[in-house]
Specification:
This is NUDIX domain-containing protein. InterPro entries: NUDIX_hydrolase-like_dom_sf (IPR015797), NUDIX_hydrolase_CS (IPR020084), NUDIX_hydrolase_dom (IPR000086). This protein has helices at 42-54, 117-128, and strands at 3-11, 13-14, 17-23, 33-35, 57-58, 64-72, 80-88, 91-92, 101-107. The protein is α+β, with helices and mostly antiparallel strands and 133 residues long. A four-stranded mixed beta sheet has the order 4-1-7-6, with helices on both faces.
């Protein structure tokens, strides 16, 4: 039996690099975002998670779908799949890590091994489209 982890992620690319965050106690970086709460839309999840993690407000009118990816979930038993619905969006405020994040970083394609499998699929697409250096 397979298990699906449903997540939403914020794709923020600047100067050929993508914003990634390492949650407290984790050994890998992730695209900012997280799991949907009961009854939440993708947009609601995106706005809540980005504000919780990076203390900025994503501008709802600027949000556009960047792609949806599925892969084996990092650090979970075989058969646990993560689905990551990715969205671009502008933001207001100053990026800063919250108490649940140990560090944030701007990654190039060379940093691909430092993110989990589902994030690597996004890296591949961004590299192919010329957005990620």
């Amino acid at each position: 039996m397979s298990v699906l982890i449903d997540t939403v992620a914020w794709v923020r690319v600047e100067n050929g690099r993508i914003l990634c965050a390492r949650p407290r106690g984790k050994d890998v970086f992730y695209i900012p975002g997280g799991k949907r709460e009961s009854g939440e839309s993708d947009l609601q999840t995106l706005l809540r998670e980005v504000e919780e993690e990076l203390t900025v407000a994503v501008v709802p009118s600027s949000v556009t779908h960047a792609g949806t990816y599925e892969a084996q979930a990092h650090g979970h038993p075989d058969g646990v799949v993560v689905r990551m619905s990715c969205y671009y969006g502008d933001y207001r405020g100053t990026l800063a890590v919250s108490s649940e994040i140990d560090e944030m970083a701007w990654f190039s394609y060379a940093d691909r091994p430092r993110v989990p499998p589902v994030d690597q699929l996004l890296f591949d697409d961004l590299k192919a489209s010329g957005e990620l250096r």
